[in-house]
Amino acid sequence: MQSKPWRSVFRTALPIKTNLDRSLVMFNSLALHIQPVKVRERAIRFSYTFYLGMISFFLFMVLVVTGILLMLYYQPAIPNAYENMKDLQYVVSSGIFLRNLHRWAAHLMVISVFLHMLRVFFAGAYRPPREFNWVIGVLLLLLTLLLSYTGYLLPYDQLAYWAVTVGSNIVKYVPIIGKNIRFVLLGGNTIGEYTLVRFYVLHCVVLPLFITSLIALHFWRIRKDGGLY
Amino acid sequence: MANDKIIVEENTRPDQVPKRIAIFPERISARFETEKPPEKLVMSFPHLIIREVICLQLVVIVVALIALFFNAPLEELANPQHTPNPAKAPWYFLGLQELLHAFPPLVAGVLIPFLVVVALVVIPYFKINIKREGLWLNAPNQTFIVFTISVWAVIILTLFMDTFSVAIPSILLYGLAVMPYFNKKENRFLLWLGRRSLSEWIMIWFVTVATVLTLIGTFFRGQSWSWVWPWQ
Ligand code: HEM
Fold first, then answer.
1. Do B104 and B208 share a domain, yes or no?
2. Same domain? B54 vs B138
3. Residue B163: inside a domain, yes or no?
4. pTM
5. Whose Cα sits closest to atom 13 in ligand 1?
6. How confident is the model at residue B30 (pLDDT cuts 50, 70, 90)?
7. Which domain holds residue B139?
């Protein structure tokens, strides 16, 4: 493990023996170095956070991976979108499993993000200097809901169509600009081809970019605010 | 940091810019936490990393198991001519949809969600949420009067609107909240209740009502949003 090619890829030499080596594992890795080299023992206990933030993040990772795979089989058009769902079920190998993974992970993420918020609240972990990270968290909750909601339309079955109809009808009641917002969102006065494309772009590009950036900011702020409360 | 007097040497030559800058705040601003006593530390690798890896594996296993046994729903192709009865929003919005049947749409669909988001955002910026003292700690008699009047104003309003799904949990929670005021016994439950602050009671109330409304919307609503039992 001390060979030149190994050392050219991984900056830390093996074996890992001392605490200095252990620090370097964290320090030398792009993926890990966002976390501190040492943590308070109390902060990593399960009973302290129930790992709910972590679980939300891993569910998001599952959603990204399965979402990209689903995109390979999906066309945001009528009736193709619906037929794609049928193909996933009957033609694509393990297609239904892929779709199930994405669907259930999405529901679980809504729950885990909400529970994470409750845990943070009851721990009082929004106290200064963590106020702004709480605000970022609220935005993350809203983005999670929006992602779930925009994804709900994509199978374009009866369930999707009417659920999104119910939701988008509420937007109408926003004073003055409600009707305009709804028009922009749906790409018309009723749900149709353009709605599907708009929700598709929001669901697969715009909202994931936003939420990824905000999660990065969220994690960075946890460290800058001095680790867990 | 606005009040801190900071002494920094200015130098525009990059090769002479100091590597370390020491900042001496004139006074510690209250914004920052008072120093905590040192706590036991552990190395992130392996102690934190192993937990993350196991957590990731469990998440994947649990989602995979659910996905193996339960299929995502798929109905017929969307048909704008054929409205199902009832048409339901995704489950996380069913609490709101439930409210829509009790309050005018501007209130239930726009005002309430907006206020909830605003209320969540401003939590960390209010002293009362930072201090979080037990509700009955200071001036219990005054607290009792103000608390009772405000809570019952809400309850009576919801009764007036026939929203028992909000009123009943509210009455129960009101009962729990005032219990330590009347009953001074020192058992663990009462002590726990007594330590809850106003902010916590509001959050408990919000979560309870939201859960009740969501469950009702999901399992107890049928044709034309009429009440049905899940087994019917
Ligand atoms: C996509 C959604 C989210 C992800 C992936 C996420 C992730 C995390 C993670 C991994 C932590 C470390 C501690 C833990 O695991 O509990 C954390 C902490 C924190 N989160 Fe989130 N979070 C999300 C949403 C939220 C929401 C909705 C809120 C609140 C409204 C929030 C507020 C906070 C705060 C204040 C902390 C610091 C807690 C402390 O210092 O103890 N987060 N988050």
1. yes
2. no
3. yes
4. 0.92
5. A53
6. very low
7. 91-225
Query: Do B202 and B149 belong to one domain?
Result: yes
User: What's the confidence (pLDDT) of residue B1?
Assistant: 46
Instruction: Determine contact, residues A87/A93, Cβ cutoff 8 Å.
Output: no
**A116: CA distance to ligand 1 center in Å?**
6
Q: What is the CATH number of domain A50-224?
A: 1.20.810.10
Which of A96, A127, A162 minimises the CB distance to B83? Answer: A162
Q: Give yes or no: residues B51 and B116 share one domain.
A: no
Band of residue B186 on the pLDDT scale cut at 50, 70, 90: confident
Q: B210 and B159, same structural domain? A: yes
Q: How many domains does chain B have?
A: 2
Q: Note whether B208 and B140 are same-domain residues.
A: yes
CB contact under 8 A, A122 and B203: yes
Closest CA to A78 of A12, A25, A155, A23: A155
- Give the Cβ contact number of residue B137 at 10 Å: 12
Ligand 1 contacts CB of residue A147 (under 6 A): no
Segments in B70-187 forming alpha helices (H): 94-100, 105, 112-122, 127-131, 140-160, 164-182
ipTM for this model: 0.95
Q: Give domain status of residue B205, yes or no.
A: yes
Cβ of residue A215 lying under 6 Å from some atom of ligand 1: yes
Residue nearest (by alpha carbon) to ligand 1 atom 25: A137
Question: How far A60 CA sits from the closest chain B CA (Å)?
Answer: 11
CA torsion through residues A84, A86, A91, A93, sign: positive
Looking at the structure, tell me whether residues B170 and B211 fall in a common domain.
Answer: yes
Question: Hey, which residues does B41 pair with through a beta bridge?
Answer: A40
Low pLDDT (below 50) residues in chain A: none
Q: Residue A40's closest chain B neighbor by CA?
A: B41
C-alpha Rg value of chain A to the nearest Å: 22
Distance CA A152, CA B47 (A): 39
